Amino acid sequence: MAYEIEWTAAAVRELRKIDRPAGRRIALAVTALAEEPRPPGSRALAGQPPGVMRIRIGDYRVVYQVDDHRIIVTVVRVAHRREVYRTL
């Protein structure tokens, strides 16, 4: 069963700031989350509510929340690895 993908306004703004090739790789990785919301290499974030995960795409990180009851993946942050965890 495919999950619906939602983006927060902040995540969309962050994605637009990233250069095009990296942005395309990130968009493809997020699209793949619809079929497999917990792909190999994804990690649950410590100190966050259950279901908050992250995937790595090169030097960038995508932080997202999986809601298994509503079958939704919400992209919360997209940023460079140096910056992504600062405001969570």
**Lateral arrangement of strands in the main beta sheet:** 1-5-4-3-2
- CATH C-level class is Alpha Beta
> Could you tell me the radius of gyration in angstroms?
12 Å
Helical residue percent band: 25-40%
From the spread of the alpha carbons, the general shape counts as globular
Say how many strands there are.
5
How widely separated are the two ends?
29 Å
Uncertain residue ranges: none
Helix and strand element order: EHHEEEE
Main β sheet profile: 5 strands, mixed
Instruction: Quote the average pLDDT.
Output: 95
Spell out the CATH superfamily: RelE-like
Relative strand content: 25-35%
- Which CATH architecture? 2-Layer Sandwich
Number of helices: 2
**Total number of distinct structural domains:** 1
Class derived from helix and strand content? alpha+beta
Which fold name fills CATH's third level, the topology? YaeB-like fold
Oligomer category: single chain
Organism: Actinokineospora alba
Family: Belongs to the RelE toxin family.
Keywords: Toxin-antitoxin system
Protein name: mRNA interferase RelE/StbE
Question: Overview of this structure, please?
Answer:
The structure is a single chain. Strand 2 and strand 3 form a beta hairpin. The mean pLDDT is 95. Strands 1-5-4-3-2 form a five-stranded mixed sheet. The chain has two helices and five strands. 25% of the residues lie in helices and 33% in strands. It has 88 residues and is of the alpha+beta class. It has one domain: YaeB-like fold (2-Layer Sandwich).
